[in-house]
Amino acid sequence: MSADRVGIIADVAGCLSLLQGDIADLRQSVLQGYFTMILLATFPPEVTADALKTQLSAISRPGHPPLEVAVTPVANPTAVTQPVAPENIYMLTASGQDRIGFVTTVAAFCADHAINILDLATTANDGRYMMILQVDLSRCASLATVQRALHQFAQKHTIQLVLQHNDIFEATHAINMPS
Question: CA 160 to CA 164: how far, in whole Å?
């Protein structure tokens, strides 16, 4: 974590490469000017968590604060979890009046209906709050049951909800770049 600046991802990835780190997964975001990243990487056995933290904490650029770094070894890095089947991945958008508890209300609905949140982004603007959730419905009784519950939930909490399959979301939000 750090105040945002150009080049943080390049600096972190470069540091990991020098340590022979292989990045398996990474999420990064800038939240109101504050850079955040979480990643999973594998390293040769001689690279310790302390050595990794020391190297990452030493990343700096003139005029910018150093990174705040936490390194947590994974107990069983070779264990491979079963990925969610693509047919069970949906996008849920929730929007409404900005208020305390908005995220809690939507997240509790998901938990109560066996909907696992895989990814989540939020934003507030002009008194409105928006959540975009990538969710796994594989544990749900049925899509029809989820849709009925979402409709009732939306009416009760005055929230606009849209649930669509991830493939549809990607197709309608893709930006094609010319070759």
Answer: 13
